[in-house]
């Protein structure tokens, strides 16, 4: 499964036209980074931060053969185990309406499916499956009001065509965005706009948005792409003004690497001012932007994949 999710997290998928990134310089230095989780066994993945910035949830294989979900208070070393189901649980997402609902995906039944768990910190109840049987579904993302969930799905995990779906939790209806070929959706915190990673012809992924009118997709927009490297794992800033993403196969220190993340970059939501944020030779990816401005991400700079955080420079 680690190899399969490496494809999801760092798939080399489409390029188009975007403002050119500023040239790399030997004077480039990344801001100070902070290690959030530690350990030698297993790996930590998929960080998410509660709307108030007080709680970090993530997937970890440090305490068993598969990935389970954990939570810790910001600044604390104590980790609370949230799931212990067979198989793997990945991509946890706390509802922006409060940490009493946790969306995630699991392969307990043999196919990846999206679930919601009520009261995860209080022991939880029985997870409710939301995605359709017969299709793999991963990477849920909440609408700003916590009433809808977006995710990506495919009938064949390894070779199928991925598309986006939106589930209305009040009506129980699911809208399939048939013409939106993409993965890793992230709902804007300020509007009905979904950010996602899109495949394409040149084998290099790019970052796009699509508007959702409640029933269907409207107006897809290319935010960032490059003919030289893939752009993956996009995520919004809390105010919806900026986007952070990871790159693949770009830096001089990791030339030719096309199977895992490389550095973190930020760009304005209109696609302007693409700027590299991290420059360590390690693999940096899976970013999540917290309310206090810090970006949580996964890096192997300590020797194994762990969660770190960095505070990006302020933009005017």
Overall pLDDT score: 87
Q: What count of domains describes the coordinates?
A: 1
What is the CATH C level class, in words?
Answer: Mainly Beta
The major sheet is characterized as: 4 strands, antiparallel
> Pairing-aware structural class of the strands and helices?
mainly beta
- Give the strand line-up of the largest sheet: 1-24-23-22
Tally the beta strands.
Answer: 24
Inertia-based shape:
globular
Which percent bin holds the helix content?
A: under 10%
The low-confidence runs, each spanning 5 or more residues with pLDDT under 50, are 1-27
* The named CATH superfamily: TolB, C-terminal domain
Strand content: 35-45%
Secondary structure tally, helices: 1
- The helix-strand sequence is HEEEEEEEEEEEEEEEEEEEEEEEE
Give a description of the structure.
The chain has one domain: Neuraminidase, CATH 2.120.10.30. Helices cover 3% and strands 41% of the residues. It is built from 1 helix and 24 strands. It has one helix at residues 2-10, and strands spanning 33-35, 44-49, 55-60, 68-73, 80-81, 89-94, 101-106, 113-118, 128-129, 136-142, 148-154, 163-168, 174-177, 183-187, 193-198, 206-212, 217-224, 230-236, 242-248, 264-268, 275-276, 284-289, 295-299, 306-310. A 4-stranded antiparallel beta sheet has the order 1-24-23-22, with no helix packed on it. The chain has a 4-stranded antiparallel beta sheet with strand order 2-3-4-5, with no helix packed on it. Strands 6-7-8-9 form a 4-stranded antiparallel beta sheet, with no helix packed on it. The protein is globular and about 50 Å long. The N and C termini lie far apart (42 Å). Residues 1-27 have low confidence and may be disordered.
